[in-house]
Automatic annotation (TrEMBL):
This is Knr4/Smi1-like domain-containing protein.
Amino acid sequence: MDWAALEAGLGTSLPSDFRSLAEAYPTLVIDDFLMVSLPTPGAEAPWASASRDDEILQDLYEMGDTGDYVPYPQPGGLISWASSNSGDTFYWKTSPADPDAWPVVVRTDNADWIEFPVGAVEFLAGVYGRTIDVPGMPRNFPSDDPKVLGLSDRID
């Protein structure tokens, strides 16, 4: 992964836990429900561009449907890093200045905004381990026998 090119295109560094996650898992889908948007080597520029110019978030902002949150690249703006197949979107709030201290913000499919004071990997581990509850997400997620599509799995 050319992190320097990706972060230059995005205009900010990314959290180190996410960088490690992306290096370990070129694909990450939890229980066929939560998909982490990981950059792939050679496609850093499109990933950065899509993250920087999030049209859906911009539209929500212009409609006044983002609460106190703003889209990146505004100071403290949101950058999307995952989504669910029921319409939940997972963001970082790019404040404070240290990306490793960015909290996770979830926009649920019910249009609720919830902030969690943890990073992406701690958030995913908490959701997977059922120590973090995201109101509005299905009660059966993760399932009793969750499947994780990752490093050795194929996507056809």
